[in-house]
Amino acid sequence: MDSNSGVVQTTCPYCGVGCGVLAETAPDGTLALRGDPDHPANHGKLCSKGSALGETLGLHHRLLEPMIGGRPARWDAALDRVASEFSSVIARHGPDAVGFYVSGQLLTEDYYVANKLMKGFIGSANIDTNSRLCMASSVAGHKRAFGEDVVPGLYEDFELADLVVLVGSNTAWCHPVLYQRLMSARRERGTRVVVIDPRTTATAAECDLHLPIRPGADVLLFNGLLAHLAASGSLDRDYIARHTEGFEEAIALAAADAGSLVHLAAGCDLDPAALRLFFELFAANARTVTVYSQGVNQSAHGTDKVNAILNCHLATGRIGKPGAGPFSVTGQPNAMGGREVGGLANQLAAHIGFEHPAGIDSVSRFWNAPNIARQPGLKAVELFEAVGAGRIKALWIMGTNPAVSMPDAGKVRAALRSCDFVVVSDVVATDTTRFADVLLPAAAWGEKDGTVTNSERRISRQRRFLPPPGAARPDWAIICDVACRMGFGDAFAFRSPAEIFREHAALSAFENEGRRRFDLGGLAGLTEDAYDALAPRSWPIHHADGAGAGRLFGDGGFPTPDGRARFIPVRHEGPALHVDDSYPIALNTGRMRDQWHTMTRTGHVPRLAAHAPEPVVDLHPADAARLDLAEGDLARLSSRYGFTRARVRITGDQRLGDAFLPMHWSGHFAASAAAGTLSAPITDPLSGQPELKHVPVRITREALGWIGVLITRRDLRPTGFVYWSRAATAGGWIYELGGTEPSDQGTLLARKLLDPFPRARLLEYTDRRGPSFRAAVIDDEGAMEEALLVAAPGRLPGRDWLVALLASRAPLSPTDRRALLSGLAPVAVPSTGRIVCACFHIGQHQIAAAAAAGCNSVEAIGAALRAGTNCGSCRSEIRAIIATNRVEAAE
Ligand SMILES: Nc1nc2c(c(=O)[nH]1)N[C@H]1C(S)=C(S)[C@@H](COP(=O)(O)OP(=O)(O)OC[C@H]3O[C@@H](n4cnc5c(=O)[nH]c(N)nc54)[C@H](O)[C@@H]3O)O[C@H]1N2
Ligand SMILES: Nc1nc2c(c(=O)[nH]1)N[C@H]1C(S)=C(S)[C@@H](COP(=O)(O)OP(=O)(O)OC[C@H]3O[C@@H](n4cnc5c(=O)[nH]c(N)nc54)[C@H](O)[C@@H]3O)O[C@H]1N2
Ligand code: SF4
Ligand SMILES: [Mo]
């Protein structure tokens, strides 16, 4: 940190790319954030979410003081209460009657003390993390093949590869800066890119070959690839012989499973010629990187999917070499750090598991913790089942929103409601904080110090550049205070995150002797100053100085007893649940470009909301026709577990029979749109990761009698509506409303939203012929404070000008007032359409107009409108709009 100039180097709190961010405070106190040109992950670039970080620092919904039973309390009282309830449950029912559910949003230091408290001192391993929903299959796959959870490669490999295969990864939206690094390399050196995803994603829109695979068929595909590599003489026999075990069994099963190309293509529902092309590309390119994420992990057979991919890399010796390797990209900012400390219930600490008593004894001695847990604990889905069944009586949730993000989320909410004692540490109010008996306000990004580890094992500092608001405190300090009150003061007397980090580093090296690659021994003696100045470095780190490690396993040396990697024979199984007459559509869930998870932070930023303002379910045209659904209809989706509602979008990007729903909308942003409510709590038997990418659903049309829009400064959670969803806009919110009542009843219902305002401030107009209703609320300065429009479906007037009036806060002219009542804009406001470029706020219609006027490349659009010239996250969408324009022009 350069304290003189007021520039603080920190790390983005969103995805696992782990981009460096500079936070600069000007002399007048204003804060500016930008990409850190010196950070090796991003070299100064940020994506749309990273670029908007400055807009998330407001105090919207921030928790500012502890609460007990919904009432403000002092820290002392709250901490005493947590410690005494946990201690008393443990005394009465034993340590396994309590649980922690933590998160990859936590910093390594927070994570370390939470894990140490539960496993070392409470003596139970019932601490699990949202990484169970995210990375568990990759962890299990790495451990089976390599003996340890290690990602062998570096980001540079994306740039050095000749072929990059993206499997179940919408990299363009979910790891955008890394994706842009790949795209620059592709422009410079012609890297071939293959995308394996059932959907035509933004990532698939820009590749050499897209394989729209049948959901869940990845094991079959990679078994087919392994068989092809063997049959075509593309194996690295030397690497196999010197560094691996089990090849013969794996190839035998793969060949039998895959069968002929025609059989294989039918199983994967792919064109045999495209499949062959992929196999040939893979066979021909020694420099191949295979990137994978949730399309692989979030599956009932996710671990097998991971190993099917690893088998192909081991068989070709393409591992840990420049431009070659399997690459599991991590989701959350500190998914990797959580794995390092042992945050998963089936790991103990520092990459030591529960398999060997010697390892457990070693940690027990290091921590001086005779009461250490000796068995794995409950994994997330089991943990919440135990809460629901009353076996877990006290639960502490930190930095995650399981009421929305867990599968079968309705049941999770019921479990939380029934639990005797629930503690939640969060930075804002969420759907989960509603269930808290004790609510603890945590310091947020920018307000706390610590470290995170990104997908390439690189540890970076998050540094504080703001004071925590109100009484908010960093998680590590909260956890240590509770531990002290439970009588474990000696082991939790940490005064700083640096002190915790030193202990974490020392544990990683303790009695290690080269057995575990995760080793931060070189950092165990870091001074406070050196910790403050710590530059981003990849582990293993054996020396205090130096650049950190490079690639691993290029010349074998796997952390298994014999130093060899394991081939794992795997057989195709497919998804756990099948579609049938009652639930005929396979629902896939995942991410949108500009929202982060349950929208607790990104949902409040207008320019991030504009890209996807409503919960939308994507359907293939033929499915929509079969289900009698039209574009923009409100759909009801139901699975065996629950139901949600979302708008219909009809798109050829979906496979026939599949639908896609984003995972982001919670009860804070829509009436009932949480994807987790539909998802099945069915898990991979090895990793415990739930199958979030596949659940059979039924989709029907809600016969809406009316629709409405409320444009307002108020932050509301409306009740009594069949449908509402909201999106942040400049100066307030836009609420979409709808109901199945006849439209006059709908008007009455919607009109109630205006009850808080005195009649004198209302302008109202009911059009009996329509019938439609329009109203506006005028503030003391004569500006529009709120506007409500209600009409029959398809009859709502345009609202762009009302949104502009809300933002302007200017007093209304007489013309504006007349226009408010007539429902017609006083002057024609050109509609920008859905926002595509979040950085410069450029909409679909503007890009289409520029394309029609002759801008026929992404570069030309950039020159004309600036769209796509900053973070680049929208470049593939711009390309798609240009292509559509070309088709339309040709017709
Ligand atoms: N914008 C944004 N970025 C994020 C996040 C966010 O919330 N928003 N979250 C971060 C986190 S925590 C994570 S874990 C990552 C996730 O990053 P990704 O894994 O890239 O994201 P998802 O959209 O969950 O899923 C990826 C793709 O898997 C595909 N898929 C579904 N089923 C299958 C299948 O059977 N086989 C194959 N091959 N593909 C399939 C889906 O169609 C989807 O396009 O993103 C991180 N980055
Ligand atoms: N259907 C479906 N469900 C999914 C997925 C899917 O693809 N489909 N993906 C899964 C995956 S991969 C993931 S990672 C999860 C994510 O799911 P969640 O973990 O539930 O998502 P977030 O919204 O990131 O929740 C993080 C919470 O931590 C809070 N927070 C942020 N910083 C801090 C901090 O420093 N301290 C504390 N105490 N709190 C903090 C935020 O305000 C927020 O409420 O969702 C999973 N659920
Ligand atoms: S790619 Fe975007 S979200 Fe991910 S770390 Fe970088 S700036 Fe943050
Ligand atoms: Mo994740």
UniProtKB/TrEMBL annotation:
Its cofactor is Mo-bis(molybdopterin guanine dinucleotide); [4Fe-4S] cluster. It comes from the Bacteria. Residues 5-61 form the 4Fe-4S Mo/W bis-MGD-type domain. PROSITE patterns: 4FE4S_MOW_BIS_MGD, MOLYBDOPTERIN_PROK_1, MOLYBDOPTERIN_PROK_2. Keywords: 4Fe-4S, Iron, Iron-sulfur, Metal-binding, Molybdenum, Nitrate assimilation, Oxidoreductase. InterPro entries: Asp_de-COase-like_dom_sf, BFD-like_2Fe2S-bd_dom, BFD-like_2Fe2S-bd_dom_sf, CT_Nitrate-R-NapA-like, MoPterin_dinucl-bd_dom, Mopterin_OxRdtase, Mopterin_OxRdtase_4Fe-4S_dom, Mopterin_OxRdtase_prok_CS. Belongs to the prokaryotic molybdopterin-containing oxidoreductase family. NasA/NapA/NarB subfamily. This is Assimilatory nitrate reductase catalytic subunit. It comes from Kaistia dalseonensis. The lineage of its organism: Bacteria, Pseudomonadati, Pseudomonadota, Alphaproteobacteria, Hyphomicrobiales.
